[in-house]
Recover the amino acids of this structure.
């Protein structure tokens, strides 16, 4: 291979090996393919965590490398989930409807089937017709294309408007928060066509695979999520390795200077924003079939803030930092909020972690920002730098005080 | 000889303060020019206007043989048209190596997609190494530019300017904070650059300007006070009054 981006950045092959080992160990401990030490629900948690790691890699690209603090990337994640959810729900309902109508004396027409599906899906919001946005829901390939196209287009249009007007810094962050909030509020409406606050549910039941137990499907999704994370990581590592990486880091550090070098800064920002929006959409499309349900609350502004917190705690500006942050914080969060953490009895007051976890997270975010801006990933520097640099004193060979005294 | 850059009757004011007042200036294709003037004379604002950072209230800025107006172009378009700029404070990308800094500046297509698929050929790498040699940073090429001394950062920035192969270089106080030996090296670099492109040097230090041995433009309160050889302008009573006499 010679001198490629994979060999030049040692962290990429190391990360891929760690991920492969994780997949192997989890597979050997899973119910369908191994000892069964890992329950299906925990397997789903692990698979979902890998999807969160993937969206964190995207966040690191856009924030840690390009310096755009987007607080709206979970909107793209949620949209990806909605796009795949539409097909899952449509197709599963169609199979159920077709089965129940099969016994009828007169075979149902296509129109009857479609209207039966519509009343099944939209009865909950008092409607029985398919809205326009569901026009491709019958086709898996089209809906998969929308997983990429819808978040990508939204990111492209939003980014074009924002970057063209040179909105930067905290103003851009606020704008992205407004975007995800507006989208979430829109989806909450019953006539948005995506079942309002009910969201899309039953997504864990994959159409056509009803004979398979959830444990097998979960393992497949775990593998798929790991593969997506590996590919996303390699792609991100490739993007940041060459001159493109130099330029976007330059934009992060001194945007005006890059402009005076002749680079169209807005084009670069738009490219990164759109590509990371697409990655987030793909991650969401893998996440929500494992979660089983998606509703507009998933696109709430707080979700995107969490994403930034993961990347900050893991260490921005390094891809493995984002992965570590997302995995660590979301798994610890599952542990604390799942009621597994023991309450601490202080006599006068009992600390219940379900309530206090957010405060703990907030405090650790503040502490990391102040004390360790490199995040958890910075610990790896400590190990490698020590080995490389033994002395920060004068150059090797120079005359030093003890020698001069001799 | 047609001029490379013609600034004509340009005025700009910030909150009522006239930073540039009916300024006219022109420079030929391979000319070295020093611009001096007291603080607040509008030297940096002048550079901001030429590089597109500041839009003037009135006047015209014409570029090249075809007299394109720079006022309608963005900063990056102006840079691609061939105007390079070195800032007063050295601004290099500190967490990247000297090599990466120079490679980024190297004259290539600048679009996101061509940059994404760009991998340096051996000629490009040689060119970067040659430039590093010219600016005296051959031994530092793999070091982070943030670790360099102040003078070395100034040279790196001049090297980045040379790598862009501009037709006009605007250099803001290149010798600030340099030792005498470093200044000499800087003078040589600028003189050599001026053999192939136009160079405008903004400088405070009269000795440095004298060593450049070129035409001098004196700015005062946003317009040109005097222009000519260094001996001509330093003997001008008005210049002595506002600038040298203090």
């Amino acid at each position: 291979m010679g001198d490629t981006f994979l060999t030049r950045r040692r962290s990429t092959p190391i990360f891929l090996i760690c991920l492969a080992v994780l997949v192997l160990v989890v597979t050997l401990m899973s119910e369908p393919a191994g000892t069964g030490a890992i329950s299906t629900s925990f397997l789903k948690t692990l698979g979902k965590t890998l999807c969160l790691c993937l969206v964190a890699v995207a966040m690191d690209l856009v924030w840690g490398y390009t310096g755009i603090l987007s607080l709206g990337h979970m909107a793209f994640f949620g949209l990806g989930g909605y796009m795949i959810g539409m097909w899952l729900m449509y197709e599963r309902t169609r199979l159920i409807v077709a089965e129940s109508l099969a016994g009828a004396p007169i075979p149902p027409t296509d129109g009857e089937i479609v209207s039966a599906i519509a009343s099944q899906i939209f009865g909950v919001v008092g409607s029985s017709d398919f809205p326009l946005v569901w026009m491709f829901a019958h086709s898996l390939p089209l809906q998969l294309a929308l997983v990429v196209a819808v978040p990508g287009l939204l990111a492209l249009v939003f980014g074009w408007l924002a970057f063209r007007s040179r909105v930067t810094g905290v103003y851009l962050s606020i704008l992205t928060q407004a975007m995800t909030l507006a989208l979430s509020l829109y989806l909450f409406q019953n006539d948005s066509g995506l079942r309002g606050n009910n969201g899309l549910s039953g997504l864990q039941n994959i159409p056509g695979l009803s004979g398979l137990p959830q444990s097998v499907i979960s393992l497949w999704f775990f593998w798929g999520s790991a593969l997506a994370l590996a590919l996303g990581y390699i792609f991100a590592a490739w993007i940041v390795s060459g001159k493109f990486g130099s330029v976007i880091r330059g934009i992060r550090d001194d945007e005006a200077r890059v402009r005076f070098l002749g680079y169209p800064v807005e084009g670069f920002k738009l490219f990164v924003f759109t590509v990371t929006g697409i990655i987030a959409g793909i991650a969401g499309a893998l996440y929500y079939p494992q979660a089983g349900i998606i509703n507009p609350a998933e696109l709430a502004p707080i979700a995107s803030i969490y994403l930034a917190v993961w990347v900050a705690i893991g260490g921005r500006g390094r891809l493995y930092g984002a992965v570590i942050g997302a995995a660590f914080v979301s798994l610890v969060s599952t542990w604390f909020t799942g009621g597994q953490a023991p309450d601490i009895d202080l006599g006068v007051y009992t600390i219940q972690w379900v309530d206090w976890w957010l405060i703990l997270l907030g405090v650790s975010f503040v502490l990391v920002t102040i004390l360790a801006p490199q995040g958890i990933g910075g610990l790896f520097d400590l190990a490698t730098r020590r080995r490389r640099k033994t002395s920060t004193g004068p150059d090797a060979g120079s005359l030093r005080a003890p020698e001069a005294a001799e | 000889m047609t001029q490379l850059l013609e600034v004509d009757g340009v005025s700009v004011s910030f909150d009522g303060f006239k930073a540039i007042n009916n300024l006219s200036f022109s420079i030929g294709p391979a000319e070295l020019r020093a611009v001096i003037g007291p603080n607040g004379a509008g030297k940096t604002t002048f550079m901001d206007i030429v590089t597109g950072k500041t839009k003037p209230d009135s006047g015209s800025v014409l570029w090249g043989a075809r007299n394109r107006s720079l006022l309608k172009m963005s900063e990056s378009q102006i840079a691609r048209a061939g105007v390079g700029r070195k800032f007063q404070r050295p601004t290099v990308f500190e967490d990247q190596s000297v090599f990466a800094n120079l490679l980024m500046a190297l004259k290539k297509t600048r679009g996101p997609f061509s940059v994404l698929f760009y991998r340096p050929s051996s000629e490009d790498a040689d060119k970067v190494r040659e430039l590093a040699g010219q600016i005296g940073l051959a031994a530092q090429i793999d070091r982070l530019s943030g670790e360099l001394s102040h003078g070395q950062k100034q040279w790196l920035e001049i090297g980045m300017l040379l790598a862009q192969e501009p037709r006009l270089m605007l250099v803001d106080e290149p010798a600030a904070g340099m030792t005498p030996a470093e200044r000499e090296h800087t003078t040589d670099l600028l003189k050599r650059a001026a053999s192939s492109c136009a160079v405008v040097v903004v400088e405070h230090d009269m000795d440095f300007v004298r060593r450049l041995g070129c035409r001098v433009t004196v700015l005062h309160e946003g317009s040109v006070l005097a222009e000519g050889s260094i001996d001509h302008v330093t003997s001008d009573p008005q210049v002595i009054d506002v600038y040298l006499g203090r």
Chain B has one domain: 5-244. The radius of gyration of chain B is 18 Å.
